[in-house]
């Protein structure tokens, strides 16, 4: 089962972006998940993996703010019982793999999706077994999916089909699956109703294919093999969906692997802006400007200073001293940029829950720079970061 990335921007220093395989192996390894996973559990599993991805093999335990986790998956952050039930389901669900290792030896393994999970003081802590973590961290085995796309799904069967097809997007086909295996991948192996292909096709295959093709960045087409009149195997042809390719935003894998990108992110530059600057100015030029900024004494806002340096050399006059309002907006921008992508998404959801009517519309258009919500935005960020605006006079 392929799992997933990104919010619109997933910086590699905090969370992983959507991975792209390099050379496609003749043999594409598979991890199959047995048992039924609800749509909520599938989304939870993807967000947990995304949060842990960069430290999967270097850390035994991982943590994420429980409120952020709830909001990322789309349910009430106060509904702790639902979160407990979803985590319990992942700990009780088995992942199985059967593949060739690096030496060409056949390897079979089985593991719970989560080795444990606990909630304490508003934090969700969880872990994977070492063997499963190693498999999940291998980009040749496992393709992270786009969380923007994941959130669009309304059916667990459709999301399961997408996950199991997406990791084969480079090969163009899943290869042939027996119907028994396909039922397991869809989580319906325990239901005798779906032993008949006509029921499986009408209730699972056709609706799932329709939602994947409407919702995601790929188009899947089922093909069948028969023995006589009996369907015995199924595979899915996979092509990119040109109408929704914009959802699969270039993750700038080359940029994100650069030391310049890492230094920009460490300063608090947003993922998108860092990639934009690297495209516009080049790594060498940015490296020199970063060294220049680092050598200046008394710079409190390195991001703002670097921005002005880049604008000045492009012939844009340096800005006049900032007004208190502008300084608050700059502080809000920096605070938001410093949050992880999961936190940024949760912040917006939390704030939007307070709004309605014209105020909500204005925030949707302008985000944290919304003039109509300026006072409420300051209040919100003071709650998130007490003292964030100390030293900035009102006005």
Automatic annotation (TrEMBL):
Pfam families: Rep3_C (PF21205), Rep3_N (PF01051). GO terms for molecular function: DNA-directed DNA polymerase activity. It comes from the Bacteria. InterPro entries: Initiator_Rep_WH1, WH-like_DNA-bd_sf, WH_DNA-bd_sf. Residues 24-165 form the Initiator Rep protein WH1 domain. GO terms for biological process: DNA replication initiation. Belongs to the initiator RepB protein family. This is Initiator Replication protein. It comes from Gemmobacter megaterium.
């Amino acid at each position: 089962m392929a799992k997933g990335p990104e919010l619109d921007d997933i910086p590699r220093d905090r969370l992983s972006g959507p991975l792209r395989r390099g050379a496609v192996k003749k043999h594409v390894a598979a991890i199959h998940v047995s048992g039924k996973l609800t749509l909520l559990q599938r989304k939870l599993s993807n967000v947990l993996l995304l949060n842990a991805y960069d430290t999967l093999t270097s850390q035994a335990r991982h943590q994420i703010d429980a409120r952020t986790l709830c909001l990322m998956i789309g349910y009430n952050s106060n509904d702790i019982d639902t979160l407990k039930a979803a985590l319990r389901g992942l700990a009780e669900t088995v992942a199985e793999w059967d593949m060739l290792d690096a030496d060409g030896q056949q390897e079979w393994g089985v593991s719970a999706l989560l080795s444990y999970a606990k909630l304490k003081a508003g934090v969700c802590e969880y872990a994977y077994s070492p063997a499963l973590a190693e498999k999940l961290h291998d980009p040749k085995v496992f393709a992270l999916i786009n969380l923007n796309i994941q959130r669009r799904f309304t059916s667990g069967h459709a999301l399961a089909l997408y996950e199991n097809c997406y990791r084969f997007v480079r090969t163009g086909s899943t290869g042939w699956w027996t119907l028994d295996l396909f039922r397991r991948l869809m989580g319906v192996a325990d239901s005798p109703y779906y032993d008949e292909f006509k029921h499986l096709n009408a209730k699972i295959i056709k609706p799932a294919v329709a939602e994947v093709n409407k919702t995601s960045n790929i188009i899947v087409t089922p093909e069948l093999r028969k023995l006589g009149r009996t369907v015995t195997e199924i595979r899915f042809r996979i092509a990119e969906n040109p109408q929704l390719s914009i959802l699969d935003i270039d993750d700038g894998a080359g940029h994100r692997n650069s030391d310049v990108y890492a230094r920009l992110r460490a300063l608090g530059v947003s993922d998108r802006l860092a990639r934009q600057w690297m495209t516009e100015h080049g790594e060498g030029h940015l490296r020199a400007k970063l060294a220049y900024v680092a050598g200046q004494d008394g710079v409190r806002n390195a991001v703002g200073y670097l921005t002005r340096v880049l604008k000045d050399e492009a012939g844009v006059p340096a800005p006049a001293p900032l007004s208190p309002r502008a300084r608050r907006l700059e502080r809000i921008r920096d605070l938001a940029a410093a949050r992880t992508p999961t936190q940024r998404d949760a912040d917006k959801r939390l704030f939007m829950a307070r709004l309605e009517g014209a105020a909500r519309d204005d925030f949707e258009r302008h985000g944290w720079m919304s003039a109509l919500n300026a006072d409420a935005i300051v209040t919100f960020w003071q709650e998130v970061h007490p003292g964030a605006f100390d030293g900035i006079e009102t006005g």
